Amino acid sequence: MSFRIVSPGATVGQPPGASRSFSGLPPARWEGQMITSELLAAYLACPMKCYLRSTGLKCSENQYSAWYHKKNDSYRRIGTERLASVYSHALAEGQIDPRHLKDAQWQLAIDQVFKTAEFSADIHAVQRPPAQMEPFEVTPIRLICSNRPSRAVRVTAAFDALVLSKVTRQTIPFATIIYGESWSTMKVHVATHIRELTKIIHKLKTLLSAANPPVLLLNRHCPECEYRDRCRAKAVDKDDLSLLSGLTEKEQARLNKKGIFTVNQLSHTFRPRRRPKQLIAKPEKYHHSLRALAIREKKIHVVGHLQVPPHGTLVFFDVESLPDRNFYYLIGVRIETGGGHFTTYSFWANSSSDERKIWNQFVAVLSDFENPILIHYGSFETKFLKTMCARYGSPPEGSTAAEAIASSLNLLSLIFAKVYFPSYSNGLKENARFLGFEWSDTTADGLQAIVWRHLWEDSCDPELREKLIAYNNEDCAALDLMTRVLGQLSDYANADEAQPLRTDVIRADAIRPAGKWRPFKSPISDLQEINRAARWDYQRDRVFVRFGTRRRPLKQSAQRAPAKRAQKIVFASVPRGCPRCQKVWRRKGRLLSRTVHDFVFGKYSIKRRVIQYVAQTYICRSCGYEWGLSNLRLHGRNWGWNIVAYFVYNVIGLRIPQLTFQHSINRVFGGHLVRSSLNEFKARASRIYCDTKAKILDRIISGAVIHADETGANIKGHPGYVWVLTNLTDVVYILAESREGETVQHLLRGFRGVLVSDFYTAYDSIDCPQQKCLIHLMRDLNDDILNNPFDEETKLVTLRFASLLRSIVDTIDRRGLKAYFLRKHLRGVDRFFDFLKRSNFRSEAANKVKQRFERNREKLFTFLRYDGVTWNNNNAEHAIKSFARLRDIIAGSSTKKGIEEYLTLLSVSESCKYRGVDFLDFLRSGETDITTFARHRRNAE
To answer: N or C terminus of the chain with fewer C-beta within 10 Å?
Structure first.
């Protein structure tokens, strides 16, 4: 019996008739290449690895990949021998015939290769129950040496079962994985992975039939891959974005759309941003563009102020482990003893039974020093401390060791997003190598340490143990160096900006984009003084006056002192009858008057005047009620209502900043407005029109159609959200602290009309007919076509939808939004959804579009059955744009109360706009009901 032994992480060799060389890839691909379980496993790790393996390209493996493949082959060989010894009485010889499984006598077949027209599976073992057992199910077995089977192993086992089911023409519900040192078993249900496997196979077919290799993207699998050095060299040669650790594939695609493909290009996009005071306490955002800039300039870039380790005895430690066993076998400690001297400890565990011993030794060392500060690099050691305390107990509470463990410091947390070294990642080795530190073994890393540990367990070679201890001690020394450098950087970054610049460190906050007006900075103080002497105001004030040229002061128009005597008297009209009991039997009350500064509006002019408002009050002889007190409509002690109305019109209606309005009024009209008065204007107007806003909301909720939308707001640096509800005549804005659906659900709990909205899921729980915005859907479909230019299935669905919607829009243009004329298109809608139901798309994008249509079927064409319901949400979006323009003016400077005042006045302003009413005229009228004002205006015309 002859068979091949191929490790699960490897792929099949080069196919017949295909010749490949290391120097390059073939110019074209063959069609119909078979998909094997090994190619599938390679694709799950990296598409580029799968492509290179399919071409037969050979590379010299790195030490880890070579060791892993050898270990996996050995595990498979031993595992099949164990299985063969169990089924020695019923072991198949050679390749089995899948067509006669029920008649066969064997119960185990080893190293079987099954092929179909498209697939090939190299199955480690096939188990068959005795012929008399029911149900009769054949099970593929896969052996993997790791103690933790990965997702790729489970999917590959499901693929084995899928191919075997196609060959045997019977359903195989599950596959078995034998794994780890204890020869544990895992059952993989094929139904759980079949949908994912179908998508992967489709992508794999596209990859293997492509003429060009896939886009090179370095990922987490690269350190384990035999093509690591080749791909890394090509990425460095291309200056590829995937060199930057932490830059996700989605972020790379977004940058590619902007035309950014290299690290050098990304480095030119960094722009420093001044952080608001409200966000100073929050963590700094990580900037990949700043990392790229540091690489380009080969200098360290620092952002903001840096923290330094607290004072105490610095204890640097590093841990080595076997992750799949969850076994920690080496703890390295380096303790600074002062004067540049240090002490090192290495606690070694021969087996897992020694783990408790090395933990106790580590705790004992911490207890010997006063105020120890535990410092490590990364979250691996944090997990180690928690695991050890859970397994073997924490040190006594209040002890030195317990306090050190509880307050351990991850040095990476002080560096992340604050210090950018000119390296592609924040790894200890890359950053320490930039600082000049080198390891005695240049190949040493975490994966290589795993190889050395396993080789030591097999041979007990003392040289391997010394290698591991030396590597661990050097990690601690590198950590010591990084801590000292961070202390130096913190002294520099936290110092005054006037400190002379260091040549190897740059403050990122001080970077300014190159331009004509960039500030002049120089380490030479004389040049700074010369530049200061060239300023415009310095020359006019200090130089020209000595030359004999007197500076002429700017002419300012003389501001006359505000008049004190009334220039106009206005008598307020008072109702004849009592507003409370409606009786006309009255007597005169107090005569009220107030002299204020106000505006007088002419037909084409505005004048500032000192006006005396006079109001005669009356007292009802029947009920004793006094009326006429509120007819003065004054604001404060110095300002009349017209100037308040003019302020609201400018700030809310015209979106003019308050400070600009203040300067304009004081300069043009000779006023003396201050900022506090403007804030009081807004607050007073908001209180007056609070009932107006409530009436607008009641009219909207009692109507037949509501358009709803939401957007973000900035409340003194804190996030907030503004919901807008509108119909064709009214608009109301509501402030909420979150974007959760409770706000809109509470507002619309009594609404029974049609709700027009976007596809935000918060609207789905509202109990009323709904119409989703088809403009949003159309834009999303258009983006899908642009992102998938060769996806004909997505394009077909979009064309069918566009044709249907175009005919509906033509009818609306001719007949309007009348259900009587629009119902005829319901048949076309049914035909469109029947087309979707019959279609079986292969494209992932097309299937997503299909699912979206089917999920929202009852909400896409509701407008065909109701009068006056639009097919888009442009009404609400237009209202949102009005708030967005006001939001730009406010710029996060207002409190929650101030935002609510703005929204009240904006609701009135936009409702006037929707009704065709002049906002300034409405404000000046003193009326608080927009409907009443609009009716009176129409009657007057």
So the answer is: C
